[in-house]
Amino acid sequence: MSNTYQNKSRRAQPDPVAAEVAVPEQVIVSMAEIAGAAKEGLLALAVGAGLQVMAAMFAEDAARLCGPAGKHNPGRAGYRHGAEAGSVTLGGRRLPVARPRVRAADGSGELRLPSYDLFSSTEVLGQMALERMLAGLSSRRYRTGLEPAGQAVEDAATATSKSAVSRRLVAATETAQAGLMSRRLDGLDLVAFMAGGVHFGEHTCVVALGTGIDGTKHPLAVEEGSTENATLVTDLITGLRDRGLDVTKPVLAVLDGAKALSSAVKKVLDQPLIQRCQQHKIANVRGKLPGKLRAVTEKRMRQAYHAGSALKAEAELEALARELGKTHPGAAASLREGMAETLTILRLGVPPRLARTLRSTNSIESMIEIGREHSRNVKRWRDGTMALRWCAAGMLEAGHQFRRVNGHLHLPKLRAALEDHFKNVSAANQNRDQKAA
Q1: Are 98 and 83 in contact (CB under 8 A)?
Q2: How confident is the model at residue 11 (pLDDT cuts 50, 70, 90)?
Q3: Among 5, 190, 258, 335, which residue is least crowded by beta carbons within 10 Å?
Q4: What is the pTM of this model?
């Protein structure tokens, strides 16, 4: 299938800044001036030629505002006023250049050159710093991650020191955090919800991940606190509601079993149905058994979780719990605790391909692991604000890597099953109330 529609969509939105830049029809490049750069490779040669083209664009902007140099032009918008030192962004560095100055003919001040404004923008510096830090490059080695642009450029370049890179990184992560926490959620039709905690030094961040009806995974929010408590998680989910998330629809909440998470979800969401992570339950039971019983117990639990029905799975798990209860009562109690919630997807009849995603918290664990991986070079966590910034940046980076969940075509069926479940619960409650009356 052709991707023509994507190309058309991108061309339909031209850059408004680039549209204002005057580009000369012809530019003569002095090869004598960049002969040395040619010896350093094609990229250095291209940079040298590009700098000459940029200078020609500055001159073209000045000519458009002032008219040809040395000729009287009564209709000019401004007049030339020499040149001054400036700087442009080049491959993650700042490079000093000379820019023409143009004064307004009516005396109102200095006129701006669109081409200089375009090339001097520093937004790309912060983005490049963030990309390299997330890729594992330390701020001390930032310069080594830049593409070689020629020795002349390297000698003149600035803004590559550790302190300069750190300042840009702080600004970029602050922008990432603000973008994540201010994103409106009015149009998100949430079917599945996950929440979990991640530790950065002594700081705990609780993160949320949602799956829409189309199968797209959305990093939703992050909150920082000393522990993963109910108040912290409640604040996080309440913030989602304040940002427009519809909390009235039935949602499958896939959680790791922490009581704080379950309590907060039930408090804020109107119709949540809890699916306990089967992976966490297996790990909890294994941790209470000696080595010789761990493998066989895990195998039997997995077989039960893949049974054809919730009734059959519950019978198999209960039989296993009775066997363990004679010799290892702690493991049996752990297995029975929350057993019904580990079988929610079986009761809902979720198809196996989609159930593979929703039977555990692997999706949010993957997002958390990406955040940890990107921050592995951080040696000192100064405060909770720093942890929030890095966590938010990692979540957004994970969002770029996400694919739609396996079996996403079955999500409308899951929504229908959730609605039927709560209708049945409501009907049962009404019958019980009538009998009690």
Answers
A1: yes
A2: very low
A3: 5
A4: 0.74
